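Contributing: when you submit paired examples, paste them exactly as shown. First protein:
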Amino acid sequence: MKIKVKNLGVLKQAEFTLGDLTILCGCNNTGKTYATYALFGFLSIWQRMFSIEISDDKIDQLLADGVIHLDIQEYVKQSEQIIIKACQEYTQQLPKIFATSTERFRKTEFQVELNTNNIRLIDRFELTIGSTNTEIFSIIKTEDSTKLIVTLLVEKENIKIPIDIVKRTIADALKDIIFSPLFPRPFIASAERTGVAIFRKELNFARNRLLEEMGKNINPMELLFKVYDDYALPIKKNVDFIQQLETLVKKSSFIAENYPDILVDFANIIGGEYTVTQNDELYYVPKGKRIKLSMDESSSAVRSLLDIGFYLRHEAQQGDLLMIDEPELNLHPENQRRVARIFARLVNLGIKVFITTHSDYIVKELNTLIMLNHDKPHLKAIAEQEGYRPEELISYDKLKVYIAEAALIKLEGSHKKTKCQTLTPADINPELGIEARSFDPTIETMNRIQEAIVWGAE
């Protein structure tokens, strides 16, 4: 999946391809968060943006014959135009995604490019629509079939569901079958996650108090959504996630069920575990101690990893896209290295990871995992000696790394190169890893100054 943007925040023109592990690095205020939020927003609401038309003829046939067989490949052929139209529609939604003025995105363009020649359909799909006592119609796609079978389950004279809802339901089924394998389910941990963790109790109290005091003629959900209109979608998602922990803890992720050692590694990073009581009280329990700490009593590192910890234990699914804005927040360099190793492990298990980072430690640790991933005796010896497990090593071709910077590029419609803010692909070598030149000038400057201090008098 390739994403192209124009006039998005400070990014004049940029493009990036989503890898199994995607990294955006660069200085502050260079467009990393804009690119991240725009991608997250699209992946969160793409189904609303996509439009698939079901003809009246098909509905007439369904009512007349009681069944229709739709050729899914006919809709696959329309996929490119469907995506183009959806991106145009999504661009109009960017002010809501970022919770800012429409004027700021007046010249913005957002595009998603996919290889639609090799679309892999969902193997099986089955949905039955009806009321409590009556099933009205079913939608089925069997394995290895390219036909969608819609069957009326009641006499047409007894249909009480509007035709436009029938059309929309069939269209939604086609969207899932055709496009859901192409778009991963996103989960984001925004840079504001530490504050959300601290004020979880206050947010819950304010919400409950608001609901108690509202009049009967007010739509409570509508009012609540208005309360959060001043926040970008990723922040809203963080607030929603943190307020649902009592329900969330009843679920187990595929990681908790099949790879509990990852949760052990995560617990070692935070030095304990999170727990939620029956009264929806959130605590951190330090390892080996009989105390429970509230979030405001816990370290900033514990708060910054809260969303990620609950996601790994209760929510993660294969095929997801885990997006983290600055995973290094409040972490000691050693724990930044450990986080990098968890990222590599997740990628190898089928979860895509997308991060923005200022951490040279994370990038260098990923380089180590790339460099050790070769079948050479001395590398195997180093990995064993330093405690690296085979499942943590990662192939260089699973990574995409981009540097947010001002660079000379050829703008569309121009014959000359112009220096503007963009995303530049970083070189990734199978033997040496990522060329992290975003950090190099600062490190070289510090080394030069310190060498002058030590040796300057001679």
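Second protein:
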Amino acid sequence: MNSKQNILIRFGEKLRELRKSKNYSQEELAHKADLHRTYIGMIERAEKNITLLNIEKIANALEVNIKELL
């Protein structure tokens, strides 16, 4: 596994962990972040390379600092 894929996997795992700690479904988080539900799932499964702007949206929706996602 290359490092690019590894960072996507680790980010997705962290996102899932934080989302579940807030008891949010993927759909709830997507709504709060103004993103599509399938996009959240794809990030959690390391299928999408998320942009910095969307990292900020998700951090705000989870009420955490960006660094907590990283």
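If you have annotations for the second protein, write them as plain sentences, like these:
The two ends are 19 Å apart (CA to CA).
The CA atoms of residues 11 and 65 lie 14 Å apart.
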